[in-house]
Structure formats: structure tokens, C-alpha cells
Amino acid sequence: MQQFEFPKANQAIIQRLSWSRRIAILNGDHTAKQQVHHDVDTIYLRQSDENLKSLLIDNPQLFVEKKVIVRWQDYQQLNDDLQEKVFAIHLNSQQLVDLAESVPQNNELPLSLQNKNLIGACHNENEIECANLIACDAIFISPVQATPTHPEQSGLGWESFSKLTAMAEMPVYALGGVGRDDLDVAKAHGAYGVAGIRDFLRKSH
């Protein structure tokens, strides 16, 4: 579709179509692409720098079968060929705040973030405003529910989540205590998609 000229009003719609409804998050102990459920075609890799480079170099087919998201600090360590294949760069909440302060002064994003999809991590109104300011292409809003890995953090709940999504000027992914089958519930509360770890990966046998 992108080879044709579209009115500017339609550009946001075209951009949104490139984002999947489900995103699987893979930590350092998740390295096999076959662990991801078949209905999930986008993965966010949170491996350490060296593990990430090895994973991407050793599994070139990963870029063919999945859309790959990596952290900004990891993206900057990749060679040009791997950077070209990355679908999106993840920005944590502190990076969002810092960029929102610096971009108006510099009039542009840092070079490494230009011409790439950006997805930010948001937990409150201020961080969403920062994501809006730097024109992120998508954001995670979390935690929707309490999770086993962070039981000390109470979830936002769907009502508060819905209020936050209304502030966002880009597709929103519900994250935190959310499963693949929660997509309809998430969409009913303003989300575009869902993301997570455990329920998005197949159990090893």
C-alpha cells in the first residue's frame, strides 16, 4: 500500500495497519522463536546486548517470520544491516521523559531514532503526554493487572486504563497481567492490542 499516494489524513490509518494486535515479550531466558504462539507475529526482545546480537545473527529467519522490537540502547549496538531489519525501537519511561524535554530544543529526534517505528512504555498521564509530544508510533500502558513477577505493584484496572488510552494519540497495547485472549476486553477499553510474556509463549515440553 505504501507505494501509492494517500491523503495525509489516511497516513495514521496506514501506519496503524503495520502493527500487530499481539506482541510477545521475550526476556533473557527466552531465546527460541518457536516458543512464540502462532497467532503472535511481533516480538519484543529484552535480551542483554550480547545475547541479542547473537540471537539475531544466528537466526536471520527471525526477521522474515516475526516483526522485531528492541530496546533503544540495544539497537544502537547493532550493525547497519541488523538495524535496517528491526521493526521498532522500544523507549522506556525515563527515555520518553528525557526526549520530551530535549526534542523541542533540538527540533528533531536523535539520529538513531529517526525513520524508525517507536514504541514507548507508559504508566501515567505524564508519560503518555511525553509519548504524544515525540510522536511515538505506539505505546504500552502498564500494569493493567497485578502480575506474579511484580506482586507489589497494584494494577491500574480496566477503568483507569481506559482513561489513559483516551489520552494517547497512537495505538495502545495493554500490558501487565493480560493474556492473548484478553484482546477483545482490551479493545473495548480503548486498546489497539495486547502484550505479555507467559501467555504469549508456548510451554516447553
TrEMBL record:
Domain of life: Bacteria
CDD domains reported in the protein's UniProt record: TMP_TenI
Gene3D superfamilies: Aldolase class I (3.20.20.70)
A Gene Ontology BP annotation from the UniProt entry: thiamine biosynthetic process
Thiamine phosphate synthase/TenI domain sequence ranges: 113-199
Protein name in UniProt: Thiamine phosphate synthase
